[in-house]
Amino acid sequence: MKAITIEQCVSDYNKNYNIVFSNILAEIDTNIDKIIINDPIKKCRFCDKTEPEISFKKQAHAIPELIGNKTIFSNNECDSCNSKFSSLLEDHLGKYLGLWRTMMQIKGKNGIVSYKAPDGISRIDMAKTGLELQSFEEDPIFECNDQERTFIIKGYRQPYVPIAVFKSFVKMAISVMPYELLSYFNETKKWLLENNHEISNYDIQPIFTIASSISGKKPFNELLITILCRKNDFLKVPFMQMLLFFGNLGYQIIVPCKPKDFHLSNQPINIASFPHPAFKSNESNRVIGYSQIDFSGKSIVRNEKTSVTMGYEHSIVNGKTST
């Protein structure tokens, strides 16, 4: 997939889109003010129910805590929807990102998750001195390149359902988009709340995701989210996109909107891949990769291989430091 510079990409998107939401979220607990999504009407953004039929006792993260959000919360996600999304959607997102979450040291609700190889021999844990990797000859999980000061971790994802991962991203967009845009996504919201991933009453299209990853040391500790909305309905681009960047990863999601994107159904979509904001072309030791991911699968995916390329400043072998 061909990438363009950030400047070119911004120029291209400025012709077609307005930014309707954008924020840099803290990945760790800080003293800064929390961001609270408050709609004019006290009702759930997803099921459209109000009290006393439903309750709002739980603290709902507008963006999942499992990818580092400690900042933005919603007062318009009811306890019932919150519980459903946690088990039905976000659990699959956590399993999909498992190895990356460990390597990027993202702190979720229970701290930094450990990675365990399927056979339980090799593993990666967060120790007091940093990440601790246990790899054995019969079960190797990493390779080092001392010349480029990088190492590749090879692992497997826990079983996950692709469409649930995609729905997790869409749910984030609906959680933070301006209130006045919600009415365009009524069918999308009903689709998110379906209990069965394999059977759907809704023809939601397109399901389109561009993923990016940047090699080397984790570039920043924040989570960047931007929601883009099409400037007018004459433009041949999707109505809404979400850009999400955290650590070494980036995801560019088309947020399905049937009333506004019916003309795009079953049509090829050609959109520019947005570069990771931490990438600089003069950094020869960093590589950025792009891929278009098909998250339309409705069955459980098992034993899917994944890899993470990270950087290090020096290594110690048999007591000798290499820089």
Mind explaining what this structure looks like?
With 323 residues, the chain is an alpha+beta fold. It has one domain (6-316). Helices cover 19% and strands 28% of the residues. It contains 6 helices and 19 strands. It has helices spanning 6-16, 79-96, 98-103, 162-176, 186-192, 258-261; strands at residues 17-26, 35-37, 60-61, 72-74, 107-108, 111-112, 115-116, 123-127, 130-134, 142-145, 150-156, 209-214, 222-230, 240-246, 249-254, 288-293, 305-311, 315-317, 320-322. A 6-stranded antiparallel sheet has the order 1-13-14-15-12-16. It has a 3-stranded mixed sheet with strand order 2-4-3, with no helix packed on it. It has a 3-stranded antiparallel sheet with strand order 7-8-9. A hairpin with a 4-residue loop joins strand 10 (142-145) and strand 11. Helix 2 (79-96) crosses helix 4 (162-176). It is globular, with a radius of gyration of 20 Å.
Radius of gyration over all CA atoms, rounded: 20 Å
What does the main sheet amount to?
6 strands, antiparallel
* Sequence of secondary-structure elements: HEEEEHHEEEEEEEHHEEEEHEEEE
User: What order do the strands of the largest sheet run in, or round the barrel if closed?
Assistant: 1-13-14-15-12-16
- Structural class, from secondary structure content? alpha+beta
Poorly predicted regions are: none
Determine the number of helices (DSSP H or I, runs of at least 4 residues): 6
- Domain unit count: 1
